[in-house]
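Can't attach files on this board, so I'm pasting raw text. These are the components:
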Amino acid sequence: MITLALSKGRIFDETLPLLAVAGIEVSEDPEKSRKLILATSRPEVRVVLVRASDVPTYVQYGGADLGVTGLDVLLEHGNQGLYQPLDLRIAACRLSVAVRADYDYASAVRQGSRIKVATKYVGLAREFFASKGVHVDLIKLYGSMELAPLTGLADAIVDLVSTGNTLKANHLVEVERIMDISARLVVNQAALKLKQAPIRHIIDAFASAIPSA
Ligand code: ATP
Ligand code: PRP
Ligand code: MG
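---
Top answer:
Structure tokens for the assembled complex are below.
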């Protein structure tokens, strides 16, 4: 049995076409079912649905043989013990710093002020600001980061941006791009050795189906 960990929403939706190329069709729509284990058209392959931030954990400890996860989640988790063979080029976005339009980020940085930064990505944010020599107080949030500067909880946020619509709708502006993000295939290293042929088949099929740059 091969177990693939996916999260509901864009990761699931954008992985389906890659699975199709590997000859794997998921038998149920996760939006219409409460099931967490989904069978596929291939009896030896199943999909487990986990929170996006739990995909690396499942794969690292062997709860799943492989998984699809954002580079943001992967770097924040730490990629110990995970074989990372492919950039799938799906779920593309960027990790950025954003502030209220009336907050002068550049002069706060220049003056060496302490900046209050709210984010789900405390590890990545700490590393980024440390590398710039900017002093920050980090505030851990689990979602709706855009609200933090609007309520006075923080001066800035570190969050994902794709179209920029969410920032715009909340009167925030992007002031720095930290890194480009896309989804990665991650594989449990022991599973790769023990179930080499079926896992190789999936890696090769995914590789052949990656959207071009
Ligand atoms: P949860 O709902 O469990 O808090 P989440 O919000 O991280 O999880 P998704 O929104 O499905 O879950 O995001 C999964 C991955 O997709 C992210 O880790 C990131 O790599 C990517 N992603 C997030 N937002 C966008 C976006 N607006 N456009 C493109 N890719 C995105
Ligand atoms: C993500 C991310 C941003 C938004 C950016 O939220 O957390 O809020 O997308 O995308 P945009 O630049 O195209 O507006 P998501 O849609 O995943 O909602 P969530 O709060 O449920 O995670
Ligand atoms: Mg999201």
